[in-house]
């Protein structure tokens, strides 16, 4: 459920008319709903009720400072994957002991900055990384709290580009050989082993892969404890999927996911961490765009809008579906006709939808791409020298621009011309 509904014939973001935001900031732009972000966080919080837990929002899905601040105020931790994300989380007011550092290629510089600034735990993905972290921690005279990210060799049954838990993926340490790595970690002066980490992929629409992976983590916990490690924290990653198509069957609910966690690892007495990104931010955002032209082609008609693949890359990168709806509610019984919905970028891949049934639309009409709050703005680029588009946060009947659109001059002046030219 989200808070983008038609009211009096106009799409609203909570209590604000989307058309009013468009008039104030111009299109295209992203809008996020505070109530939806809050609701999704709360669903996870309730799903893990009764277990000691921390929900670490995966900020790679949406890293706007205002969103992070909101998450921090709700009591969330943050899962970061780079120094930039670490520093942004700190800038949003998150204390170090609520920040988890994930990622397959952490540099020594990133390790040092996080150890000095405060960190809850590093999720370590390889032996060389473990050695580097040990060396950096020792040079600072501290111990780095770690979980090893294990690769459980489980098929997440999702898009190949976002599956991470099979042995052929670059992520984690094979679960079969990780006991050795834990033994080595346990002997390192700069390392404090606190737990186990697993993350098998994104946009999972079934619970079974989670159940398989968490069961393996539970078995490993017993083994490692028998080996003398104080395993007190289990980080079970993110990945729960969202319904991108209203007409399709809905993925499992957070409460059902919580039941799987309870059933598989609940008896171990560990603190549970999860790292949801998409489920918290995905349906909490829309992308609003204007129709530039309606173009009649041979055998098909094109709706050319002012948003493009540089603003929202998911359709061209992952063949992803986004529901696209007019901001002015179509009349009941309005006739639908198939349209290819495309952006202005000079690539055939700049196509949002093919032969999508749409109600009548005209130039300057507003359309909204639903479920665009995750992996939308964060993946945007300035390809075709199109400035990054603004982000807006709605809260009840208020809205605020939380990232302004840069001017063309600002974009141009970031480049410099060398003296010899
Ligand atoms: C991407 C990622 C997440 C979040 O995944 P979602 O599908 O957005 O929930 C969590 N943890 C790690 C390590 C990730 O790489």
Automatic annotation (TrEMBL):
<feature type="binding site">
    <location>
        <begin position="275"/>
        <end position="278"/>
    </location>
    <ligand>
        <name>pyridoxal 5'-phosphate</name>
    </ligand>
</feature>
<feature type="binding site">
    <location>
        <position position="314"/>
    </location>
    <ligand>
        <name>substrate</name>
    </ligand>
</feature>
<feature type="binding site">
    <location>
        <position position="318"/>
    </location>
    <ligand>
        <name>substrate</name>
    </ligand>
</feature>
<keyword id="KW-0456">Lyase</keyword>
<dbReference type="InterPro" id="IPR022653">
    <property type="entry name" value="De-COase2_pyr-phos_BS"/>
</dbReference>
<dbReference type="InterPro" id="IPR022643">
    <property type="entry name" value="De-COase2_C"/>
</dbReference>
<comment type="function">
    <text>Specifically catalyzes the decarboxylation of meso-diaminopimelate (meso-DAP) to L-lysine.</text>
</comment>
<dbReference type="InterPro" id="IPR009006">
    <property type="entry name" value="Ala_racemase/Decarboxylase_C"/>
</dbReference>
<dbReference type="InterPro" id="IPR000183">
    <property type="entry name" value="Orn/DAP/Arg_de-COase"/>
</dbReference>
<feature type="active site" description="Proton donor">
    <location>
        <position position="346"/>
    </location>
</feature>
<feature type="domain" description="Orn/DAP/Arg decarboxylase 2 N-terminal">
    <location>
        <begin position="35"/>
        <end position="281"/>
    </location>
</feature>
<feature type="binding site">
    <location>
        <position position="375"/>
    </location>
    <ligand>
        <name>pyridoxal 5'-phosphate</name>
    </ligand>
</feature>
<feature type="binding site">
    <location>
        <position position="239"/>
    </location>
    <ligand>
        <name>pyridoxal 5'-phosphate</name>
    </ligand>
</feature>
<dbReference type="GO" id="GO:0008836">
    <property type="term" value="F:diaminopimelate decarboxylase activity"/>
</dbReference>
<comment type="pathway">
    <text>Amino-acid biosynthesis; L-lysine biosynthesis via DAP pathway; L-lysine from DL-2,6-diaminopimelate: step 1/1.</text>
</comment>
<feature type="modified residue" description="N6-(pyridoxal phosphate)lysine">
    <location>
        <position position="60"/>
    </location>
</feature>
<comment type="subunit">
    <text>Homodimer.</text>
</comment>
<dbReference type="InterPro" id="IPR022644">
    <property type="entry name" value="De-COase2_N"/>
</dbReference>
<protein>
    <recommendedName>
        <fullName>Diaminopimelate decarboxylase</fullName>
        <ecNumber>4.1.1.20</ecNumber>
    </recommendedName>
</protein>
<dbReference type="GO" id="GO:0009089">
    <property type="term" value="P:lysine biosynthetic process via diaminopimelate"/>
</dbReference>
<feature type="binding site">
    <location>
        <position position="278"/>
    </location>
    <ligand>
        <name>substrate</name>
    </ligand>
</feature>
<dbReference type="InterPro" id="IPR029066">
    <property type="entry name" value="PLP-binding_barrel"/>
</dbReference>
<dbReference type="Pfam" id="PF02784">
    <property type="entry name" value="Orn_Arg_deC_N"/>
</dbReference>
<keyword id="KW-0210">Decarboxylase</keyword>
<feature type="binding site">
    <location>
        <position position="347"/>
    </location>
    <ligand>
        <name>substrate</name>
    </ligand>
</feature>
<keyword id="KW-0457">Lysine biosynthesis</keyword>
<comment type="similarity">
    <text>Belongs to the Orn/Lys/Arg decarboxylase class-II family. LysA subfamily.</text>
</comment>
<dbReference type="InterPro" id="IPR002986">
    <property type="entry name" value="DAP_deCOOHase_LysA"/>
</dbReference>
<feature type="domain" description="Orn/DAP/Arg decarboxylase 2 C-terminal">
    <location>
        <begin position="29"/>
        <end position="373"/>
    </location>
</feature>
<dbReference type="InterPro" id="IPR022657">
    <property type="entry name" value="De-COase2_CS"/>
</dbReference>
<dbReference type="GO" id="GO:0030170">
    <property type="term" value="F:pyridoxal phosphate binding"/>
</dbReference>
<keyword id="KW-0028">Amino-acid biosynthesis</keyword>
<dbReference type="Pfam" id="PF00278">
    <property type="entry name" value="Orn_DAP_Arg_deC"/>
</dbReference>
<feature type="binding site">
    <location>
        <position position="375"/>
    </location>
    <ligand>
        <name>substrate</name>
    </ligand>
</feature>
<keyword id="KW-0663">Pyridoxal phosphate</keyword>
